[in-house]
Amino acid sequence: MSAEIVIIGSGFAARQLVKSIRQRDNAAPIRVIAADSGDEYSKPELSHVFSRHQRAEDLTRQPAAAWAESQNITLLPDTRVRAIDAANHLVRSDAGDFPYHKLVLATGALPMVPPISGRELMVTLNSQQDYRRCEAAVQQAKRVLLVGGGLIGAELAMDLQRAGKAVTVVDRSTHLLSTLLPPEIAARLQHALLKQGARLLFNNALCRLERHQDALVASFHQGEQLRVDAVICAIGLRPDVALAREAGLAVRQGIVVDDALTTSDGDIYALGDCAEIQGTVRPFLQPTTLAAVTLAKNLTGDAATLRLPTPLIRVKTPDMPLHLAGETADPALNWEVCFSSSGMIARGVNREGDLRAFVVSEDHMPLAFSMLKSIRQAG
To answer: Residue 377: its pLDDT value, please?
Structure first.
């Protein structure tokens, strides 16, 4: 059997894993199979490309070949994996079949697009490749519709406004970041966007999109129509589990793994946005980094289990940056909110008065680290 560790994917999770393995073992054979170019770029920077007038190439931090050489790995860029033959420990790809000793799925997540008429006229911004495809159209657009008012939608809306575009956000919920924030706290962020000139359409949804001459005409459930130049869909991501499912691995929300990052097949692992860890998908940098360190230990001869502390979430809306943590969406919490010209401090406490969540903004963001420590101690 091959001694090679094969990793499918080259995003943040895969790179953190390679880095963590190399900190423990400089010689273990590693093969990375990437559907994209394999170039390293910062995905969070996609939320700021318009105000910075950046091109897709500007996001590249390290070319693929340089990364592969620096980490002593075999990299196959622009290669599609067609199937996993778990019985024979083989990865079948467009570049051939490759045996593995251990296989890691770091396939990430795919952007969701609503099944409406004209959905092909929307663009997504989940990768450097996505941005490269739509860069010219969105950079030149004067009127932009954002479908989705979650984390990515809010960040993009503010960036597009700062770039001088007329932005409309439509969302089915009652307020921005509805899965992360209660309405009284989201209101401050909404006010910042409205002050910039954005238009917010809540309790509404896009139902049809069509091209008319040099514009796109968006039709909404409440009957209104809007002419725009570009439509960006940011309603969320779904873990890319197709390969895992076809290979017979356990899949629920994501690829099911245990605390050692092992799937239902003992020689196959998963981490990052595609993995379901401790019953949930955790699409943030800190859990992925900790998972990569744990998995690297398990792939290099140790036995480690993943321990995930309460993560700190950063909302990169430059005119009103936020840090938040804890059970911010729990409707049972009582919120103590203090607003001032220097920002906001919001504390979510339970019936016993214990701090279970918080949101801080602007000048108060340094408080996040001590408040996070309080939540972890209480937990």
So the answer is: 65
Amino acid at the residue 167: V
Residue labelled with tokens 């990430």: 108
From the number of C-beta atoms within 10 Å of its C-beta (0-12, 13-18, 19+), residue 288 rates as buried
**What pLDDT, on the 0 to 100 scale, is given for residue 3?**
87
Name beta bridge partners: 343: 340
The predicted pLDDT at position 256 comes to 98
The burial of 277, by beta-carbon neighbours within 10 Å (0-12 exposed, 13-18 middle, 19 or more buried), is given as buried
> What pLDDT score was predicted for residue 184?
86
0.90 surpassed by pTM: yes
Note the pLDDT of residue 267: 98
Those residues of the chain that have pLDDT short of 70 are: 1-2, 377-379
Place of tokens 């010209």: 341
Q: What is the 3-state secondary structure (H, E, C) of the chain?
A: CCCCEEEECCCHHHHHHHHHHHHHCCCCCEEEECCCCCCEECHHHHHHCCCCCCCHHHHEEECHHHHHHHHCCEEECCCCEEEEECCCCEEEECCEEEECCEEEECCCEEECCCCCECHHHCECCCCHHHHHHHHHHHHHCCEEEEECCCHHHHHHHHHHHHCCCEEEEECCCCCCCCCCCCHHHHHHHHHHHHHHCCEEECCCCEEEEEEECCEEEEEECCCCEEEECEEEECCCEEECCHHHHHCCCCECCCEEECCCCECCCCCEEECHHHEEECCEECCCHHHHHHHHHHHHHHHCCCCCCCCCCCCEEEECCCCCCEEEEECCCCCCCEEEEEEECCEEEEEEECCCCCEEEEEEEHHHHHHHHHHHHHHHHHC
| Residue 364: per-residue pLDDT | 96
Q: Which two tokens stand for residue 172?
A: 């089915």
The dihedral over CA atoms of 315, 316, 319, 325, expressed in degrees to the nearest 10, equals 20
